Amino acid sequence: MNEVIERAVGILSPLCGEHCRIGLILGSGLGEYAEKIENKRFVNYSELPGFPQSRVEGHKGRFVIGELFGKTVICMQGRFHYYEGYPQSQIALAVRVMKRLGVEKLLLTNAAGGVNLSFSPGDLMLISDHINFSGSHPLIGENDADFGPRFPDQTNVYDRDLREGVRLAAKAAGVALQEGVYMMFSGPTFESPAEIVFARTIGASAVGMSTVPEAIAAAHCGMKTIGISLITNMAAGILNQPLSHEEVQETAAIASEKFTKLVDRIVTDVF
């Protein structure tokens, strides 16, 4: 695994330079934000030996490196998912590569189903915490002490100070912002109505199939992380209608303007 990381770092490092401190991981339907990056340099995941590949529609499968508001960023335009058959340790690879490249602050984004009955499709939710209900964990196996301890603390995975900054940034941008707990299921099926009742009962505000492995890996190696969920649909059983990936992408497209406004503010004012 370390060999894969070092090879990726060797390819990406000359493109990042010495001042790449910001990482972005863009979720389903949100990848177009990467088009805002200036002086773009692209590296497809397929160019990195041993690296996982994105196979889901709406995930382009490449790193985009460049400048946003005068700051060097590295962006994942498409992520990997546990349901694609990758162990979560492989999903964590990209975060560890970013750490080795010098990234200190990480923004995770995703499309999620709303569990909180006060939410509506198109809402943005600041992740305050998560519940890992995927059945696995990115740190299973031998610990690499170069990245972090065997038993890492999880009380501040989504950095408190950065979250306060995001609240202020949303207010300044005129973007309404929900806040809550994100619960990860393994997928690839959408959750059942009974699972959604369970999720709400134990404190989840939104559900999805990603983000948690990257957040755990980032916390393990000392990166400061924030997470934003775009509520693309109400979860199963709340509305009398079936769920689809097409709905996720359609809602993401509709909400892209306010998502962009918020991420712009995060990069300029919080990071």
Describe the structure.
The chain is α/β, with parallel strands linked by helices. It is built from 8 helices and 9 strands. It has helices spanning 2-16, 88-91, 93-101, 160-173, 193-201, 212-220, 245-254, 256-270; strands at 22-26, 38-44, 62-68, 71-77, 105-114, 124-132, 178-184, 206-208, 224-234. The protein has a 5-stranded mixed β-barrel with strand order 5-8-7-6-9, surrounded by 4 helices. Helix 4 links the parallel strand 6 and strand 7. It is globular, with a radius of gyration of 17 Å. The model has no long low-confidence stretch (mean pLDDT 93).
Set out the fold topology.
Layout: H1 2-16, E1 22-26, E2 38-44, E3 62-68, E4 71-77, H2 88-91, H3 93-101, E5 105-114, E6 124-132, H4 160-173, E7 178-184, H5 193-201, E8 206-208, H6 212-220, E9 224-234, H7 245-254, H8 256-270
Parallel strand pairs: 1-4, 1-5, 5-9, 6-7, 7-8
Antiparallel strand pairs: 2-3, 3-4, 5-8, 6-9
CATH superfamily: Nucleoside phosphorylase domain
Straight-line N-to-C gap? 30 Å
Q: Helix segment count?
A: 8
The profile of the biggest β sheet is: 5 strands, mixed, barrel
Could you tell me the strand content as a percent range?
A: 15-25%
Q: Please identify the top-level CATH class.
A: Alpha Beta
Question: Which architecture name does CATH use?
Answer: 3-Layer(aba) Sandwich
Q: Indicate the percent of residues in helices.
A: 25-40%
Oligomer: single chain
Please, how many domains?
1
CATH fold-level name: Rossmann fold
Low-confidence stretches: none
Number of strands: 9
Shape: globular
Mean pLDDT: 93
| Rg from alpha-carbon coordinates | 17 Å
Strand order of the largest sheet: 5-8-7-6-9
Judged by helices, strands and strand pairing, the structural class is alpha/beta
